[in-house]
Design a protein that fits this description.
With 378 residues, the protein is of the alpha/beta class. The protein folds into 2 domains: 248 residues, Aldolase class I (TIM Barrel); 74 residues, Arc Repressor Mutant, subunit A, CATH 1.10.10.920. 40% of the residues lie in helices and 21% in strands. The protein contains 15 helices and 15 strands. It is globular and about 55 Å long. Bound molecules: iron/sulfur cluster. Iron/sulfur cluster (SF4) binds next to loops.
Amino acid sequence: MAGLYIHIPFCKQACSYCDFYFVTQQKYKQEFVDELIREIYSHKDTRFTTDPIQTIYFGGGTPSLLTPAQTGSILEAIYSVFDVQAEEITLEMNPDDVTRDFLSGVKSAGIDRASMGVQSFDTDLLNFMHRAHTSGEALRCLELLQSSDFNVFTVDLIYGNPGQSLEVLEKDIETILQFDPPHISAYSLTVEPQTRLGKQVKLGRIVPPEDDKVARHFDLVVNKLKEAGIMQYEVSNYAKPGKEAIHNSNYWDHVNYLGLGPGAHSFWWEEDLKTAHRWSNKPDLRSYLKQEWEQPFEQETLNMQALAEERLMLGLRTRKGVASEELKSRYQFSFSEEQLQYIDRLSDEGKAIFDQNLRLTTKGLKIADTILLDILTK
Ligand code: SF4
């Protein structure tokens, strides 16, 4: 089984915190779709089409800036090149693009999971993040979604914003819960240096919130969603039982995936399962339209040690953790004495549990990045 990631690089405007690849000019959308279809066809009868495709994910950028017909033509090309046995086909959407017709159009085109980039309902926060939608549009799109044929959907939420109070966050969570979402992704705002937010922080115009405050936000998200039966299954992801995202879970499990479109990354195991490759297309629409996707922009070969460390890092961010048996048989990896001592300490402090699987508790997940760094440097 494998996954497909399709990067749609168009956005209406630049959100202040975003470091994904996108352009705000809209005029090359059809050229892009045509080129993407060429890229899809370039894989016909290659080794990438032998694994059945379990998941397809349209990310971006803003995939909802394409028309349902354009999305349908991309899916049609995918179906004619790959052996699609999809259990999940997701499209990221922004609230200001969503209408009843749009939802029914993309559903008929073959999308079965909607990922809605709400982030907040608070006008000041939406302005601060430079989101293109209003609070009213966020509410309306969720109403439309709830009354549509999409019974599987996810809503994105951001916490840890400078100036975001616990009360505002609580109100955002309660508003989302009114729409009974099966899945929520809640991200702590990260300050990336190349973004508008990053530059303002560097200039001292914005002070990022203290770690303690972000930790209180995290606790609030975990607890409020838990009360609603939406359980944390990864640091930033929450779902009702059985509604966990398959595509993202497969990334964490090192399942093969092919990324298409400018800036998209791919990951594929060698046939002997001793090494894997990761490569990406250049994050540049002009180069992409000149067919530069034919050559990888960046590529690396990952040996077993690198793969084991990555699997550990990704697995420990999930609630189920990672099985030591899997680390041994798939990656020939065992913990060193020093790592085991550190893990014992984590267990004593209630931050980890180590039986068949090594996994972090809620207390551990809150500081997952620090713990992962500590484990890997032991
Ligand atoms: S809409 Fe999404 S991809 Fe586009 S700038 Fe905003 S966060 Fe980034």
